[in-house]
Structure formats: structure tokens, C-alpha cells
Amino acid sequence: LLKERKSFSFLFELFRTFFKIGSFTFGGGFAMIPLIEKEVIDKKGWVKKDEIIDIFAASQTIPGAIAINASTFIGYKLAGRIGAIFATAGIVLPSVIIITLIASLFTNVEINPLIDAVFKGIQPVIVALIVTAAVRMWKRTINDTVGLLIAVATVLLLTVFHVNAPLLIFSGALVGIVIRRLFPDKAKKVLGKERDQ
Amino acid sequence: MIYLKLFWEFALIGLFSFGGGYAMIPMLQKTVSEYGWLTAEQLSRIIVIAEMTPGPIAVNAATFVGYNTGGFLGGIVATLGVALPSMLIIFLVSRLFIKYKSHPDKIMAFYGIRPVITGMVIAASFVIAKTALFTEKTVAVFSGLFRAFTEDDPDGNGVDDTAAYPESNTWYERTIYGMFGIDKNNNVFYLDELTGNVVPYYAHSYYRDYLVWLSQMLEKGYVKTLPGLDAAVDELASALSTGKFGFFNMRISRINTNYGNDVGTWPPLTILENIDPQARFVITPYMGENGGLIPYGYTPAQSNRAFIFGADVSDKKMARILQLYEYSCFGEDWMRYRFGIEGVHYKWSGEPYKSAMIFTPLDKIPKKYAGSVDMGQFGNTNFHIATGAVMNYEPTFLQWMEYYHSRYTYDEILLRPYKLYDYSTMPIEVYEEFQKLYQETGSQIFAVRNDFTNRVMKGGVANINAEWSQYLEQLYSAGLEDWIEIWNSDRIITYSDLVNPKS
User: Fold this and answer.
1) Nearest to B163 by CA among B284, B293, B313, B307
2) Does an H or E element contain B90, and which?
3) Distance from A9 to chain B by nearest Cα, in Å?
4) Interface contact B57, partner A, CB < 8 A
5) In chain B, what residues touch A78 (CB-CB under 8 Å)?
6) Are strands B198-200 and B188-191 parallel, antiparallel or unpaired?
7) Where is pLDDT greater, at A7 or B342?
8) Residues 6+ apart with CB under 8 A from B477
């Protein structure tokens, strides 16, 4: 399968998909999540619904931009290193082109009122997209009381106490591992469920 | 060499920033200031643009800084730098990922992580929603509509959506003047850089620019002349009762008392909630108690002043307009607001109100009493909010103030005169000398100004730029020459010396 996916046409498709994602997401990493889901899961079926959350998790645990990390992960998973390079190039290139154009056209880096207006119009749409993504994720990931508690705690810790993201992810992992050690019955249930899927 | 530096610095940023694009900003700031690649202001603009354009913020910022520092290649190199650490780490991590794919600990770890990610997305949507739906949206509504005011039917519906405002010599359009860099205030004088003379606003080239704009707006029908105050209020009220218009700074109590509750809230929900795409913003005078108009003036007693809006208003200009509004508060706190506390912010050199004011240098004012501004405007945001009830501010006005206080410094938005006619800037004998001259020749000079302005408003001046020098000559021979002699002299200190006294 991997060999077939290293064909040029597949790599081009990978590049094209991420180029599209890079061209249409305003507002950075989190705003990209709904689009990545739509393109990579719904349209192409490259990644399974459960896998994508693990990819997002890993993307936020390691340093660097979330969007780059996620596209590198997905590219690597689909077609190895060359796939990672194509996917990342795809997500980065629209930015490079657009920003270079803007930087060369507006020497004083003046904010064009038109762009400004467009952006401000787009913002509510981004909110809607992210809320939709959050609801979808909620349905997929919150299956029991433990999940509910972790999610609520995360929202509180982030918005009220401004705890940093990698620490939260690490803590989440720790909770899982501790459950396996302390509550073997619960862990068995979870592991069994995962295997069924 | 610069490319190598760019690559290395951005690779470090990519390597050490956890949590995505926004987390990179502090590192970015440190790096660019260390190498002197960009000023803080340039960087903050770049960040705004990075947010506004599609794609990852980290990449946008890297490309921008790279391009600004090392051209096209610089942009590419910085972007590669920021992306490379991620890729290398993932190549390593992915192997482990695959190797331990079905390890129970890995499965349980991700069982714990997934709800965390969901929580993060929810938190992110809170944060984005907060900025997108409140401040930014309000700003978008206002700035967009203000801009629309002077464009030719910008929404393309074939209808002139703008409302009329009255314009005559008794109605002052301070804020529009503000956009052109001057204040229509006879106490304020400006330095004409061409001649080196210190002149009143109507002899400054900014006034010419304003007249050019005004004649264009009249021609397009965006500015109309109306019969007078009462007719204007009637016309406005009928427009407002449709719920399709917002109005700026007209006191709701004034409208409501006369016209009942069918004239809605400020601004109407149709605009704030975007319910009715046809809803428009209307530009109105600023109404005070008893039907008087509130001045941006030096004393609260001045009346018959109005604020109106127009022109291509950038956010920065908008902030400046709002700054002008701040002056329009008055009441018991006025004196303190204007000059601060006697003995702390200033003291009289002789008899109160009859001698010059000696101002305490800003850096010597105790922190407790220092406002964020100069020249005695010691009312900062908190002051305004605290006194908001007394001052009868519109709640939205306070909201606005919070917005621009959080974004702009006064330096950016303050409209400063070059010299100010005031007992604080000159000895009392000079004050009186000019007062006398003003009484003698003021009416002739104003007659020249009013005549020219009226001709412009009636469409009688075909080429304002061409007739400008002739108009100036008329002003000078009407007596302005004598004024300028006083104003050019150093017996009157400049506003900036007043604000920042030399020790």
C-alpha cells in the first residue's frame, strides 16, 4: 500500500489537498482542524475518525506550529517521509505566496481596509466552524464519565488558569496510564472497546 | 549570512515553542528586537496580518519577517527554518508511534489525551468567539459602515443608504475636521510648514483638503444641507424609527422624549445582530440636554456644535475621532478632568484663572494621580467608567472607549494644536492683546472664511486648489497678518512645550 502511495499522482493529490487547507484557513492551527477533518476524513477517507484525534493530540504535544505538525503527521502516515514533505509543502506554500505578495505590495505593511473587512467578516464563520468541530469531537471522544471530567477540567484549566497545552496533554496521558494501574477493570473495558473498533 | 541567521533563529523558534503559532509570538518578539530586524510596531502589524491571512500563523509570521529582512529568499529560508524541527521530530516520534501502536499503555494514554484535545478545541472556540463576536464585530460594523459612507453605493443595492445631516455655518463638524488633521476651534493654531507661519485652521492646507472632500461629498449626495435643527431631528427620528439605522452619539433620551419608544436602542439590534442586511448606520449630530449640541470645546458653556462623520475612516482615524469625543464630557468634574488636581498637576503662577498655569512635568506626577495622557487629561478609562453615570454617557460609548484605550496610545490618536490660545500658554498681557485684536478683525476674517466655505458648499468653486492662494491673500489682508505676528512670536509657548516642559 505504501509503495502505491508513493506514486507521483498520490503525492500530488496529497499536496493539492493540503494546499487547499492552507489556502482557506484563517486564524491558525485550531481553525484548521475542521477543514482537515473534512478533507482528510470525509472526502478522502485517508485517516479514520479516531486516528485524527490522536494525530491532533501528538501535534500539540511536540513543539512547532500545530498545522505543520498535523500535516507532517498525516503525510508521514500515508506515504512516509516524502509524503510528509509534500503535505507540509502544501500547507505552507499558500502562506508563503500570499505573504510574499502582501509584503512586496505594501511596503509599509499598511493594513488594507478591504482585507481587514474581509477578515472581520470571516471571523464569525471561524467561530461556527470551530464550534461544529468541537461538537463533533465531543460526540466521538466523550464516551464515559472519565472523559467528561477530563474535558471539563481541561476547559477550566485552559480558560481560567491558563495552564499550558503540552502539560495538559501529558497529564491526560498520565490519567490514562494511572487508570490502567489502579483500576484494571475499567482499563480492561476501555482496551476491549478499542480492540473492537 | 543573513539567510543562515534567519534559518537558524526560526529553527530555534520552531523547536522551542510549544502550543502552536500564538505561543511563538513572545520568542519572535525577542529575536527580531535582538537583531534589530523589525521594530515592535512593525512586528505587531505583521502579527495582525498573519492572523488576517490564511494559513498557519507561525508560517505567515516567519515568511513576513524573512521577507522584510532578507527579501524573497529570506521569506523562504525563515519558513523552512520554522517547519524543519517539526518534521524531524515527527519522523522520530512516528516510528515510536507505529512500534507501540497496540501497547496497552499507549492505548490508555490516548484514552486520557483525547478528552483533553476536545477540551482544548472547546476552549479555543471560547477565545475566538470572544474576540470575533464582541470587539471585532462591533468594530467591523462601525468601521465598515463609516467607510461605506463615502463610497459610491458600496453595497450595490442602487439606493443611497446614507442619511442626511444639516450643514451650515452654525453647525460644526469637528470630527470631520479631525480626520483632516485640524480642529475647527478658534483657540487652536497650526504651523503651516510651507510658510512657517502659525495660522488658524481655516488658513491651513488641511482646511483646503477638507473643502475638496466636502465638495465631492456634496456632489455625490452623501452630505446634504438641511433647513435647521428641528427639521434635522425630525428627519433623523423618522429614519431611526425604521430600525434600519444606527446613530452615533445622539442622546437616546433626547430622541426618546420627543419621539417615544418607537425610536429604538443604540445602535439598533438590526445592526448589532446583523438581522437586517439592509440596516445602515446614520451619522448624526451629538445632542446634549435641552436640545443643545455638545461641543468639543474648551469650556462646557459652548454650544451649537455638532459631530458628524464621513470620509474614509481607518480604525486609527476612528480612534482619533473617539478621542475627540472624550473631550465632550463636562459637568462638575470637568475642571479636574481637564487640568488635573491643583497643586499636583499644575499650579497658578498668580491669581487663579488670570495668570499662567505651571504644569508639573508628567514624570514628576505621583503615579497615583497620573493619567495615561498629557495636557491635564487625567481622566483615564477607569475615570470615565466611574463617572459614566454622572456624565450620562451612552453605554456603547464606554464600550468604545475601552476598546480604543486597549489598542491605541494617546500619542497615536491625539490631535495636537501647535499653539493654543489659553491662559496657560502665554502671559496675561499677550492673552489680552490677542483678545483685542480678535475682537477688532475677527469678524472680517471670518467673513472671508465663511464666504469661501459657502461658495464651496453651493458648488460655486470649480477648482478649490486653484483658488486657495487667492483665498489666503484675502484672509491676510482682512487682518490675519497681524494675528500671525503675535502667533509666530515665542511669547506664546508651543503646545508640546506646555505638555512636556523643559526642565
Assistant:
1) B284
2) helix B57-99
3) 22
4) yes
5) none
6) antiparallel
7) A7
8) none
Amino acid type, A81: R
Residue B132: HSE in the Cβ half-sphere, 13 Å Cα cutoff: 25
- Reported as a single tens digit per residue, the pLDDT across A63-91 is 778 888 889 989 988 888 899 999 999 99
Backbone angles phi, psi at B280, to 5 degrees: -125, 165
| DSSP code of residue B357 | E
- The C-alpha of B490 sits at a distance from chain A's nearest C-alpha, in angstroms, of 37
Q: Which of A71, A81, A23, A19 is nearest to A46 (CA)?
A: A71
- What strands lie across the sheet with B188-191, from one edge to the other? B198-200, B188-191, B419-420
Task: Give the residue from B325, B310, B179, B141 showing the smallest Cα distance to B251.
Answer: B325
Measure the CA–CA gap between B438 and B489, rounded to whole angstroms: 17
B73 contacts on A by Cβ (under 8 Å): none
Pairing status of strand B198-200 against strand B346-348: unpaired
Cα-flanking dihedrals φ and ψ of residue B190, to 5°? -125, 155
Min Cα distance B485 → chain A (Å) is 39
Other beta carbons within 10 Å of B135: 15
Q: Is the pTM of this model over 0.90?
A: no
Which chain A residues contact residue B132 at CB under 8 A?
123-124, 126-127
Cα torsion angle, B418, B423, B426, B432, sign = positive
CA torsion angle B406 B411 B417 B422 (round to 10) = 70
Residue length of chain A: 197
Within 230-259 of B, beta carbons closer than 8 Å to A belong to none
| Three-class secondary structure of residue A8 per DSSP | helix
Query: Cα separation of A157 and B337, whole Å?
Result: 41
> Residue A8 — left, alpha, or beta (φ > 0 → left; ψ -120 to 50 → alpha)?
alpha
How far is it, in rounded angstroms, from Cα A155 to Cα A70? 22
Note whether A53 and A140 are within 8 A (CB).
yes
Q: pLDDT digit string (tens) for A94-119? A: 888 988 887 777 654 445 555 555 55
Residue of B nearest to A72 (CA): B87
Contact B306, B285 (CB under 8 A): yes
B109 has which bridge partners? none
Residues A81 and B480: their CA atoms lie apart, in Å, by: 78
Stretches where chain A sits below pLDDT 70 are: 1-6, 26-30, 106-130, 133, 194-197
Integer Cα distance of B322 and B320 in angstroms: 5
Q: Where are the beta strands (DSSP E) in B134-226?
A: 188-191, 198-200
Q: How far is B93 from chain A (nearest CA, A)?
A: 9
**Residues B323, B413 contacting (CB under 8 angstroms):** yes
Q: Is B52's CB within 8 Å of A33's CB?
A: no
Q: Is B124 on the interface with A (CB under 8 A)?
A: yes
B73 in reach of chain A (CB within 8 A): no
B54 beta partners: A26
CB < 8 Å to B19, chain A: 60, 164-166
CA–CA distance, A32 with A60 (Å, rounded to integer) = 13
Query: For residues A132 and B26, what is the distance between their CA atoms, to the nearest angstrom?
Result: 30
Cell (9 digits) for B336: 479636574
pLDDT in tens, B47-83: 667 766 777 777 888 888 888 888 889 999 999 998 8
Record: contact A172-B56, CB cut-off 8 A: no
Q: Which of B217, B270, B277 is nearest to B240 (CA)?
A: B270
Q: Which of B482, B139, B24, B222 shows the shortest CA–CA distance to A116?
A: B139
B63/B76 Cα distance (integer angstroms): 6
